[in-house]
Amino acid sequence: MDNDNTLKALLSLRKSKTRLLILDALLSSDTPLGIEEIAKKINLNENATSVALHYLVKTNLVLRVKRGLYEANLKLLCRAILILLSSTKFLEFLTEYKKLKKQ
Are 14 and 84 in contact (CB under 8 A)? Predict the structure, then answer.
């Protein structure tokens, strides 16, 4: 997945609370999780969880590590963070934040 598609996939998480909750649940776990476990953690039915997981796997934000077990794609997420940290927009945001903090 190229950088543009990775960033688009991450930005699309703002539109889907379910996908964001799933990703958070996977990031909070030390081990891969199944659909049933994820659904319990985010308090959602398994069908809706499965649909959202399908999208997350399709965008490569989540990896299917074994049949029925999923984990966050940490390598991809870390690369996206590096891209964001090195962007001009992030530096502008950081400058503005520091100015506001001093006030």
Answer: no
Write the CATH number for 65.
1.10.10.10
Domain residues for 60?
A: 3-102
Q: Which of 92, 84, 97, 65 lies closest to 10, judged by CA?
A: 84
Q: What is the pLDDT of residues 18-48, one digit of tens each?
A: 999 999 999 999 999 999 999 999 999 999 9
The total number of structural domains that make up the chain: 1
Convert the pLDDT of each residue in 65-80 to its tens digit. 999 999 999 999 998 8
Scanning 59-87, the segments in alpha helix (DSSP H) are 74-85
